[in-house]
Design goal:
The structure is a homodimer of 354-residue chains.
Chain A lengths: L1 E2 L6 H9 L3 H8 L7 H14 L5 H7 L2 E10 L9 H14 L4 E8 L4 H13 L4 E4 L4 H14 L3 E5 L9 E4 L2 H13 L7 E7 L3 H20 L6 E6 L4 H14 L3 E6 L4 H10 L6 E5 L3 H8 L5 E4 L2 H16 L8 E3 L3 E3 L10
Parallel strand pairs in A: 2-3, 2-4, 4-5, 5-6, 6-12, 7-8, 7-9, 9-10, 10-11
Antiparallel strand pairs in A: 11-13
Chain A binds a DNA duplex (30 and 30 nucleotides) through α1, α2 and α4.
DNA sequence: TGAAAAAACGGGAAGGTACACGGAAAAATA
DNA sequence: TATTTTTCCGTGTACCTTCCCGTTTTTTCA
């Protein structure tokens, strides 16, 4: 319960020492015109001596500016509830920084419709926003959007997946290669040395597809690097409905009766699980991605053995906070944040924070 | 870049509407004496109507109070570097909230010396602190300390382990039973149905011992609940030096030549790993606890297969933030926060945030 | 009824920063 | 030299709350 003694910091003290007014100190700090070189030098010296750091509270309080952030992520669809967690992350961050005059306006696009992405980003560009959080599902469109942002000097943060060679304020996501690599490591514990492994990439949109490939690469690399000789085969499924998955699985399982494990490279693992449950193929182990309700259910029924997850909610939370740190607090921001590669199983999912 | 229009919120507006002064409004808000019941009612009504929430920035800025927190955790010793992470967590939290007039004074005790714990907490009680973060390694002493805190109305937060029936502002830690339960689930993937399993509890201090037992309980419960019939045996090692561990292991392994897996219930797993490496017992799988340098090394050499971890750094970070939320922001605080039970292996440790 | 005591309330400063505005001094132009 | 333009700098106000110090009003009691 210590009371502060008399102030020895702050603009006031600088002004006193430099024998100028607070206004002048302010001009020096913000490098505005209207200060003679001599005065400027003197004030700068004192600032350096005092190791002066502006008081953030005062700054935010004094500036009447309301920062406006925009987030652009896929909407929660019946197809997948994956984006629920990021949305919650955004809202949590917003609740925390609203008191510092920050507003977050949320925009959503349809993951199966590039047009909706364009429509939404155009809306954002019309509003004058100070920062953007972006899940760049569509590559070319995201490049176009962020190029505009660069022109307008609006900083943007990528979450979930990165656009290489498009320098952003920050990227917060996961290392997909190593995530696949880990998946392979987990596989090894579930099957014998001679079991075949089936890798399944399920996605409608070609743009999302390269992420899946990256995981597959990691998966295959593990087996190669460690000298395992299990036969790995891959199938691609271009539709996400139950029937399409069923058909594809029926075909591949009919042709290969010695598949011991299936690795699904994204959250659509529940589709595969559903099929395995239906057909009572309990001898096939299953690894997939993402902490979704439907996946958890299959985890509980021992149909899915492991799930890999990258905390999408925290990614979004951190993304908003990165904008806040950069724009409001004017603090440096980590350029690349790789989320942990979490392993979820029946016995620990209850404690997981997505 | 929206500028705020004229204020419609804040004490000023309340005062204007109630036709009283700001001072009176303040008295009503803080329930201080010196306001007539009539005026008080009127102001309260307007506050309710406006759904007034005090501006935190203004509040912190105006109150000259510096909050003083104290943390009391074990010191980093040559014996274990476990407490490095919590220390970093505390420092990270402090860096973040220092700007809001919060100071954290760090106190350390020797985990093998109850006396040092008492000495340190007495020091804390002499200083007038506003909140305490505590790792309650010694039960009776912790109860004594926190009873004093209660008397002095100083809120305290437990991390790492809880003291049941000692109601605190918050407990931030892990569910040890389920952590052991998960360990057992992992074990199952590493060994055959007939392998023996050795559980090892290594600790000098009896007070710490019950935590280990809780994990053991969880471990055993898993096997029981799931109908596995592997033979489980436990040994206790009451010293932490290499030689003591070596001797104990030599004895038990000589008597049991069919042990397939060892589960060490705490971070001392590196001691066991070291012995296994020395004696080239590569046919024994090993699971243990905590993200420590020495453990990671053995993970890398495939001597430790899995490690379980509860983010001790984040526990401490959140503990400090809980005090901050409660005391400075006057926000409600979650009473029990259970950290995720993380699985660490060779292929994902590089991405782990301890 | 009048004075003293108590209660109720207003005003202002502090806390640190931002920024518009206006005044004074210096420099440039007529 | 007189006038205008720049350059430089100080002042005042706003942001919002807290808290102390007075002042005004009401109550109490002689």
């Amino acid at each position: 319960m210590a009371k502060k003694s008399t102030q020895l910091s702050g603009v006031k003290e600088i002004a006193r020492r430099a024998k100028v007014s607070i206004g002048t100190v302010d001009r020096v700090i913000h490098d505005r015109a209207g200060v003679s070189p001599k005065t400027k030098e003197k004030v700068k010296k004192i600032i350096a001596e005092m190791n002066y750091k502006p008081n953030l509270l005062g700054r935010i309080l004094a500036s009447k500016k309301t920062f406006r952030f925009a987030s652009l992520i896929p909407k929660v669809s019946p197809e997948t509830s994956f984006w629920e967690a990021p949305l919650k992350g955004i809202e949590a961050a917003e609740a925390e920084i609203r008191q510092y005059n920050v507003e977050v306006k949320k925009y959503f696009y349809d993951q199966n419709d590039k047009g909706s992405f364009v429509t939404q980003y155009r809306k954002i560009l019309k509003e004058e926003v100070d920062g953007v959080l972006l899940a760049p599902s569509f590559i070319d469109e995201s490049v176009a959007f962020t190029n505009q942002c660069k022109k307008l000097k609006i900083p943007y943060v990528f979450i979930d997946s990165d656009i290489p060679d498009q320098p952003s304020l920050a990227y917060i996501g996961s290392d997909l290669f190593h995530s696949g690599y880990l998946g392979a490591d987990l596989s090894r514990h579930l099957i014998g040395k001679k079991d075949k492994i089936l890798i399944i990439n399920i996605s409608k949109e070609l743009d999302n597809h390269h992420h899946l490939l990256r995981k597959e690469e990691g998966f295959r690399a593990y087996f190669k690097n460690n000298g395992y000789t299990n036969l790995l085969m891959t199938i691609e499924i271009r539709k996400t409905d139950h029937n399409a998955i069923k058909k594809a699985l029926e075909k591949v399982l009919a042709e290969n009766n010695d598949i011991g494990l299936i690795f699904v490279t994204n959250s659509k693992v529940s589709g595969v699980a559903s099929y395995l449950k239906e057909t009572k193929k309990t001898n096939i182990r299953l690894i997939g991605y993402d902490f979704l309700k439907e996946n958890i259910d299959f985890l509980n029924e021992n149909i899915i053995d492991f799930m890999i997850c990258h905390k999408p909610g925290e990614q979004a939370y951190r993304g908003i906070m990165a904008l806040y740190k950069h724009l409001v607090l004017k603090l440096p921001v980590e350029e690349n944040t790789f989320m942990p590669i979490d392993i979820i199983m029946k016995t620990n999912y209850a404690f997981y924070n997505n």
